[in-house]
Each structure stands twice: as structure tokens, then as C-alpha cells.
Amino acid sequence: MSEVPGWTRLPDLASRAVGGSVVWANDEFFAERENLIRAAEPAYQTYTFGHKGQVYDGWETRRRRSPGDDQAVVRLGLPGIVRGVVVDTAFFTGNYPPHGSVEATSVEGYPSPDELAAAEWEVLVPKSPLGGNQKHYFEVFVERRYTHVRLTMHPDGGVARLRVFGEPVADPRFLVAGALDLAALENGASVTGCSNMFYSSPSNLIAPGQANLMGEGWETARRRDDGNDWVALKLAEAGTVTLAELDTSHFSGNAPAWASVLGCDARKDPDAWFDLLPRTRLQPDTRHRFRLAGDVEVTHARLDIFPDGGMARLRLFGALTASGHEALTRRWLDLLPPAHARLVAG
Q1: pLDDT at res. 288
Q2: CATH architecture of 180-334
């Protein structure tokens, strides 16, 4: 196809820029799978050799000496309807796959690679010829919402980028009307303590925006005991939490295996902690969202990770109580310089 299709102007649902991740590949001997969904266009540097050969900005597997195909599974950062797929073999000239195909599935929660392998997959792009060093455009005509796609190279080789263009379709269960991030730094929350901050500050957990790399999150040293790491927070003000987001983006080999979130109302008893989110399994490099009961007022929260590792972000969405909103407003007014306070008061 010589003309670029109009559907390429839609969002790339798989891009790292919107939270996508490559959750599994059966082989990445020459070039790592994560390159598949980088937002930047592929680049090439001549005579850039590592101990496994030329370094490619893409995903490349070893040469097969037995029957079979190579595959990579991508979790869409924005689940939705797929309108078109681009398989880009940029700079792969003697090592591109002769054929490729793309499937998709829709699953609940945050499954492991083994659980994804057992899911029902539907064909978006049938086995199709591929050429070297070029973009291949495949229009998709399936009117369904998907959460994951699977790229198959028949039989092996290298692909620089996989673009999955489409229309995001939100899960209404996670749309909480009027919700405020009570744990956000910009809303007045703060870190009050943590078990370990060897690699980076726990304040990164509640910073604005998405983390762009591992160093923009919070990461602890490796534990060699039976304990676990934690971070304690003072929330913006008293409120109820109805949605928790635990984001392990960029933490692939060092994400926690499990996590929990506790809450307490320090106005009543600063030592009376209770479950907001019970201990829950986490996946690497994944933005997890969990609905909470939201029926208890809290002023503080504590994230426990088991046993150690790194987290990109923690979000606790909910609503301020009436007294919490009043206290936040009073503190803001009390801290304004007199001239600004008079202006606000009218």
C-alpha cells in the first residue's frame, strides 16, 4: 500500500506513551521485545555491535532450527476497537520475517502470560507476506473491544514496531464521577515514611503525570529477609477512596509480586489501620486499577509491596468529605499572603 491510510490518524492503542506494554515474547535473543511499542520512530546506527551482534531498535529473535513461530503479546494501554495495524520492519533487511499475523483477545483483570495463552484469540490480520525495511498496513474490520494483541512472526526474524490504531473504549466500572486523586502531590498529599528508598524517592509515586522511565518511580533495594517494603502517605485531606491505581510501568524484572493498601482515620486513631485493598497479585510493567468499597473515611494510607521492588505511581481516587474540603479550604486561605487573601475574599 503506497498511500498511508486515514486510520493511522487514530490513537495508537498499544503505544508505551499511553501505557501499553509487551507482556511476553517466546524469544528476544537479539533485540528486546519492549522496542515494539516505543512511541518514537525506529532508528539505526551503523556498526553498533553488542556481544550478540548488531543492536537493532526493534524486536528480533534467533534463527529457528526447529518448526514453529515466534510470538509477542502486547497489552493495550487503551483497550478499544482496532481499526488498523502497522507492522514495521524498518532496518530489518536480511532478517525480517517472511510472513506475519496479528490476533486479539479481551480478558478480565491482569492475567499472567500463561493465563493469556489459554484465552480465546481472534484473528485481526491473517498470515500475510512481509517485506524488509518497510511499513505494512493492514485494515481491520472486527467491531469488538480488545485488551491484548498477539503478533506472530512466521517463522522468526525482526520487527521494529507494532502499531495498533483504533478507538479507545473505556470500562465504565472504572469511571468514578467527580473523583479526586486524594494521594496526589499536587493536591496536597505527602509521604510521611517509607521502609527503603535506595534507588529513588517515594515521593515519585504521587508525582503528576505518568512515569516515562524506571527512574521516575520508587524502587527499593533487594530484600534478603522475610519482611516487605512500604510507603505511608498523608492524603490531601479526609475522604473516601473508591478507586486505587497501582502502576508498575517500566518495572519488568523488578516489580513487586503482590501489594496491598491500608487506610486509617488519624482523627480517631492513628494506629487503627484497615484494608482498603487486600493483598493482591501484581503483574510487571502494568497499570492496575481496582474498585474499592469507598465506605470508610480515611486521612492516611499505606502501600505495602511484597517483598520489594519498584512502583511507578500510586493513585487513590475518591471524594473529600465535607469536613475535609472545609479543612483544605481553610488551610489554603490561611496560607495566602494578605493581599491575595483580600482579593479572593472579594
Answers
A1: 97
A2: Sandwich (2.60)
